[in-house]
Design goal:
Blueprint lengths: L1 H21 L1 H6 L2 H22 L3 E9 L5 E8 L5 E7 L16 E7 L5 E7 L5 E8 L5 E7 L16 E7 L5 E7 L5 E8 L5 E7 L16 E7 L5 E7 L5 E8 L5 E7 L16 E7 L5 E7 L5 E8 L5 E7 L16 E7 L5 E7 L7 E7 L5 E7 L16 E7 L5 E7 L6 E8 L5 E7 L20 E9 L8 E3 L2 E2 L3 E3 L1 E3 L6 E6 L6 E2 L7 E3 L3 E11 L2 E13 L8 E4 L2 E4 L5 E6 L2 E2 L7 E3 L4 E8 L5 E9 L12 E4 L6 E6 L7 E8 L4 E8 L3 E5 L6 E8 L3 E8 L1
Parallel strand pairs: 30-37
Antiparallel strand pairs: 1-28, 2-3, 3-4, 4-5, 6-7, 7-8, 8-9, 10-11, 11-12, 12-13, 14-15, 15-16, 16-17, 18-19, 19-20, 20-21, 22-23, 23-24, 24-25, 26-27, 27-28, 29-32, 31-35, 33-34, 33-36, 36-37, 38-39, 39-42, 40-41, 40-43, 43-44, 45-46, 46-49, 47-48, 47-50, 50-51
């Protein structure tokens, strides 16, 4: 407030100077009392408007990532560990932060950073031509799904040939960015992917726009020059269905999201009138166009929003009330669905609709120059909205800070009804911004990412990697609310086995530093935002404490007896009887290993050793806790298994049926006859009553070596060969 007072006092003297020097005729005709009223009114107005527009944000850190060419950030997301994954495409070779050579002219490039902006790793994916990434999301397995488009054929990381000029291309990675698989989807013309999301069934929904007709992966004819085109896949990227939506003109899909009912909301912009799938007349050159479909891609409704100018939708999200927020930019005056006039040539324009697509309100934000791109609109934790895009305006209209250069990223915060609360210009050295967008973090802070050619200046503290040519780098900057005390919150896997470790996820809001205390754990304290590898060795119940702090105070969270460490599983051992290895029974599951490698299908309490060497078994109890036993220098095939002297099988080799004979087993007793393959996997089982001779049908088994087991209170086994 002290800084505000001096700013306002300076404005007061500026007004006084202006009145007495530029408007002396007014002073001569007005009373001193009237002049005082004039000054008091204007001073009050300045104080009110300065307080209203005052941004509460304080910068925490910024980070730049790039190489010796252009690196254009197109998408980023906060990850489960509190860090961020950055995705876009790169023209750089090995240089700067880029550790892998380019496959073609440009490749997908992703960078993983921690919660403080420090780089952890980077990965490049591409073919021998051009590949552009526009969407990246963390998946439920901790890995990542990358979506964009490619005109590369087979080569580099791309395993499928191109259908047309550009195809949709997605890449699935593990948590360290290592490629697991890739898939191409397209028709015989060009197809541009702009949005990808993991769906609740573990698969993916992919959206963009296409000029292709039926052919390749596209099963429906085009309505116009470009149509919305979406593809639904399973968890391995195999296409399940595809749908096209459009009119007879141009229709560009930019964003697709899964909705709470399992369906999807599609958003972009359209120049089509009523035709094809479009049921509403165009209001201007181009309009926002939103389509709601069910889980199988069947259209439920479509809506068009616009004025008499150009309206381009670039972002949408389902809101907490079940409706949707739409965001983009507009050149339309008051007309059609637009209820507020333009400030400049282009303004941000957001539209709130209900679950049926009916408009509830719209808002326009801008300065007197142009705001030619709104990259993102997201609902915030207070049910308001955060807008981020590009601005060429200085102080004017809704903009309260001048740019440092030609254009700057600009964020606007609103309440739940779209009324502006504050705005913030993201200062950097004179430059052009590329694709600015923002998100609210789990901690309640705000992260802004963009492509940037700037060097050191404003909020940017690192030089451009390519100072000679002024190429773009990825740039991300984090701001937190400097006026609100924090709220501490956290979560973790609360039930673990002894001797294992767990990770804690920080859910605190508005905090800038953290102190954790973990009773009974190693380590017992941490100052990380999201502590990992907190290990508990002894069974019991343990409490966790988190103190979250910022400049305005602290909040303490105590979770009493939050972590439960299960009891130790019963000790395990292995008994060898001939070439049969037998673990202690009572576990829920077993897995046998030979020379440290798991034996596929060897999941019973015993295993018949087919090779000499070292074996171990991992046994899992009802809590999911494991215990291991090992046996070394096993000699296989030196002695038949237990009981075989009393169990005879003939004929041997066996055709379709065999007869087993046992003289020791009590007649009439209940027994189980089980057939195991050579690695000890049960392949056939039946219940019977003991007789001196019993027929067993093994006709469905493939040729090979098997064990047959007769078991009640005793166990008898014999080996046979199936022809």
């Amino acid at each position: 407030m002290r800084g505000l007072f001096f700013s306002v006092r300076k404005s007061f003297y500026s007004i006084l100077f202006f009145v007495f020097n530029s408007a002396s005729c007014i002073v001569h005709r007005a009373s001193v009392f009237s002049l005082h009223l004039f000054l008091i009114f204007n001073l009050s107005f300045l104080i009110f408007n300065s307080a209203l527009a005052q941004s509460p944000l304080a910068k925490q850190w910024d980070a730049r990532f790039g190489g010796d060419g252009d690196d254009w950030l197109r998408s980023f997301q906060q990850t489960s560990d509190g860090g961020f994954i950055l995705g876009g495409y790169s023209y750089s070779g090995i240089s700067g932060d880029k550790t892998q050579p380019s496959w073609g002219s440009n490749d997908f490039w992703i960078v993983k950073i921690d919660a403080l902006g420090n780089k952890q790793w980077d990965k490049r994916f591409g073919g021998t031509m051009g590949d552009e990434l526009y969407s990246i999301r963390q998946t439920t397995d901790g890995g990542y799904i990358l979506g964009g488009f490619s005109d590369s054929g087979i080569g580099g990381d791309k395993t499928q040939a191109s259908w047309g000029g550009n195809d949709y291309w997605i890449v699935k990675t593990d948590s360290l960015g290592n490629k697991l698989w890739d898939k191409r989807y397209g028709g015989t013309d060009v197809d541009y992917l702009f949005s990808i999301e993991q769906t609740t069934d573990g698969g993916f929904i992919i959206g963009g726009y296409s000029a292709s007709g039926i052919g390749g992966d596209k099963t429906q004819a085009s309505w116009g020059s470009y149509d919305y085109w979406i593809v639904k896949t399973d968890s391995l990227g195999n296409a399940l269905w595809d749908k096209r939506f459009g009119g007879t003109d141009i229709d560009f899909l930019i964003s697709i999201k899964q909705t709470t009912d399992g369906g999807f909301i599609l958003g972009g912009y359209s120049s089509s009138n009523i035709s094809g799938n479009k049921t509403q007349v165009s209001l201007g050159v181009s309009d926002y166009w939103v389509i709601k479909i069910d889980s199988l891609g069947i259209k439920q409704w479509d809506k068009d929003f616009g004025g008499t100018g150009q309206d381009y939708l670039f972002s949408l999200q389902q809101t907490k009330d079940g409706g949707y927020i739409l965001g983009g930019f507009s050149t339309s005056p008051v007309s059609g669905d637009k209820t507020q006039p333009l400030w400049g040539g282009y303004d941000y324009w957001i539209v709130k609709i209900d679950s049926a697509g009916t408009k509830q309100w719209d808002k326009d934000f801008g300065g007197t120059n142009i705001e030619d791109y709104l990259g993102s609109v997201v609902q915030t934790s207070d049910s308001g909205y955060l807008l981020c895009g590009n601005s060429f305006s200085n102080i004017s209209g809704d903009k309260t800070e001048n740019n440092l250069g030609l254009s700057q990223a600009w964020i606007v915060k609103t309440d739940s009804l779209g009324n502006k609360l504050w705005d913030k210009t993201i200062f950097s050295a004179p430059e052009m911004k590329v694709y600015p967008h923002a998100l609210q973090t789990r901690e309640g802070c705000y992260a802004v990412g963009e492509g940037s050619t700037a060097g050191i200046g404003g909020y940017r503290t690192q030089a451009n990697w390519d100072n000679t040519h002024g190429s773009d780098d990825y740039w991300i900057v984090l701001f937190c609310d400097s006026t609100t005390p924090p709220t501490a919150a956290a979560t973790a896997a609360a039930n673990i086995c002894p001797g294992t470790c767990t990770n804690f996820t920080n859910l605190s809001v508005n905090a800038t530093s953290y102190i954790w205390t973990f009773a009974g754990a190693n380590p017992s304290t941490s100052i990380d935002a999201d502590p990992s590898n907190i290990c508990y060795n002894t069974p019991g119940n343990y409490s966790v404490q988190l103190i979250a702090t910022n400049a305005n105070g602290s909040d303490t969270l105590t979770l009493n007896n939050y972590v439960t460490v299960y009891p130790y599983p019963p000790p395990q051992g292995i008994l060898q009887s001939g070439d049969t290895l037998i673990a202690n029974q009572g576990a829920v599951s077993y897995q046998w290993y030979y020379s440290g490698n798991s034996i596929p299908g060897a999941t019973d309490y015993f295993y018949i050793a087919s090779q000499s060497g070292d074996y171990n078994v991992v046994c899992t109890d009802a809590n999911g806790c494991e215990v291991e036993a090992a046996i070394f220098n096993v000699l296989a095939e030196i002695q038949s298994a237990i009981g075989t002297a009393q169990l005879a099988i003939y004929p041997n080799p066996v055709g379709n049926k065999c007869t087993i004979h046992n003289a020791q087993f009590p007649m009439g007793a209940a027994a189980t006859i089980t057939v195991y393959n050579i690695i000890g996997v049960a392949v056939q089982s039946e219940l019977t009553n003991q007789k001196s001779e019993m027929s067993v049908d093994v006709g469905r088994l493939p040729s090979g070596i098997y064990w047959i087991e007769l078991k009640s209170d005793k166990t008898f086994r014999a080996k046979f060969v199936k022809q």
